[in-house]
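Filed under: proteins

Residues; backbone shape codes:
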Amino acid sequence: MELNDFASELLPHTPLLLRLARRVGACDADDLVQETFLRALVARHRYQTGSNGRAWLCRILCNLAISDRRRRARDERMRARVLATTPEPETPEPPPRIDEPALRAALAQLDPAERRILELADVDDLSYREIARALDCPIGTVMSRLHRARRRLRQHAVPARQPAPAHPARTANRRVAA
């Protein structure tokens, strides 16, 4: 079917389609009618000239409205499930306090090569590749030395954390149950 013939036969049904779209309860009636004409245009090879174009367009519109209602209900169920399973955000534990003398002492205990890699990575903010180029060594070596240097620095500079005291009610329940 020619596009002009198709448009001249089906476009006069636009006011009817708008009324129908509002009646089926679609939120965006104009968008629904536009989508109806888009679907009809794509499927115009199946439309026979002279047949009931009004009924054909109404069926397309109703099918789109039903699909839209199902999609919205499915999205709402999914949103409710996601909200129900989303854990409460945990309050981050504050970073341990590091005193400056302990940090200086920990840095002094590091090997000069490890201290240099720490300076290049954390103070100068260089990438692994740039550090490897500056020190003329492989990237893997840079990565492992930096990891070891940071681990040693943490061990010496950060005091050991005290374990949290046991909850008294839980302790009492365990004693009773045992």
